[in-house]
Each structure stands twice: as C-alpha cells, then as structure tokens.
Design goal:
Blueprint: H1 9-26, H2 30-90, H3 94-103, H4 109-112, H5 120-133, H6 143-199, H7 205-212
C-alpha cells in the first residue's frame, strides 16, 4: 500500500492526484468515489494554505527589508537633526535650543537606540513632538524639514506595524497548512481503506492496480 505517514506536504499532494484519478477510473463503488472526492477537496485545501503561506512569507521578507532600510535612513536623519540643533544652539539660535529640548528631552540615544518594533513608540513620540514644535516662535524657517521628517516617521511606524500584521498572517497560514496536511493524510488513509475493502484486500488485483499509479512516489 502507498505510504502516508511522515510524508511532506508536497509528497501528500503528489500522491493525491494520481490516487484520486485511479480510484475514479477503476471503481464505481460510491464509498470509494466519495472517499476520492474527500481526498481531492483536502488536497485543494492544503494547496491553498501552502500557497497562502508562501505569499505571506515573500511579502514579509520584502516588507522587512524595506522597513529595515527606511529605519537606517531615519536614524541618520534624526541624528543629523539632533547635531544640527546642537550646533545652531551653540551659535545662539534660541529656537534651536528650544527644539532640541522638546524633541530630544533624554538625548539622541533614547530615540535611535531601539530597533524594529521597539523603536515605534520613540518615533511616534518624536513625530508628535515635531508637530508641536511647529508652533514654536521662529520655527517657521525649519517647518518644511520638520514636516517632512514628521511624515516619514509616521509612515515608517505604520509600515512596521503592518509588517507585524503580515507576520501574524504568516503564522496563521503555517498553522492552517499543518492542519490541512493532517486532513489530507487522513483522507488518503480513508480512501486506501475503502479501496482495500471493495477490492477484496491489499492483495486484490484492483487494489494493486490502484496502488501502482504511485509506486514511484510511495
């Protein structure tokens, strides 16, 4: 008989198609045909879950690379803003000193030190502080730069949180694929028992002809 235990998902799918076709070609018994249909439905369900997981994994990889690259760019820009404000404050520009205190109350490291999702709260706080800083007297000359950085920080935070959502979808797909593989394995075993019963046992001619279609796979 074909082997079903410890089969990979790909192998289960490879077994399913020829076994279903052979069952329909060799048997007219309703029990066998119903079991074959159950295998076909289980194979479709597994194929959908596996495809969804691949898509989620590919999407997560692309999103992770994009978010990581954007994070490095923002870290550089935020660091540059901090250094520029310190330099302007040292030259006596009062608004620069006020901005530095409002945007970096605990210094630069607390803002750019975290990475990934851990940095989201810091960048969200900085984005809000940049919005508030636009109302400071004298800040209008820096408004375009502050507004652009604010918008980019908020966009990065949204993308990072969306990436986490994609990760959860991928995890859900992985669990779904595992369950679908178990269901297909059980459906194949049930079909095997039905064929064996109708064919008069595993030594029967019809059973042997049915099993022969996957001899190279099994």
């Amino acid at each position: 008989m074909p082997a079903y235990a410890h089969r990979s998902r790909a192998a289960l799918l490879a077994l399913a198609t020829p076994l279903v076709a052979a069952a329909r070609e060799l048997f007219t018994d309703a029990t066998v045909l119903d079991a074959a249909r159950a295998v076909e439905e289980a194979a479709v369900a597994l194929d959908v879950e596996v495809g969804g997981r691949r898509a989620a994994t590919a999407r997560l990889s692309a999103e992770a690379a994009s978010v990581s690259e954007a994070e490095l760019s923002l870290d550089r820009r935020v660091g540059g803003l901090h250094r520029a404000l310190e330099g302007l404050a040292a030259l006596g520009l009062g608004v620069a000193e006020d901005l530095a205190e409002r945007l970096f109350p605990a210094g630069l490291a607390t803002v750019t030190g975290p990475h990934g999702r851990a940095q989201v709260p810091e960048y969200q706080r900085l984005a809000d502080a940049l919005q508030d800083a636009l109302d400071l007297p004298g800040a209008e000359r820096l408004a375009p730069m502050l507004e652009e950085l604010r918008d980019d920080l908020r966009a990065w935070c949204a993308a990072t949180l969306a990436k986490d959502g994609t990760h959860r979808v991928g995890a859900s797909r992985a669990a779904g694929a595992k369950e679908a593989a178990v269901a297909l394995k059980q459906a194949l075993m049930h079909l095997d028992r039905c064929v064996e019963l109708v064919a008069g046992g595993p030594a029967g001619e019809l059973y042997q002809r049915w099993a022969l279609v996957v001899r190279g796979i099994a």
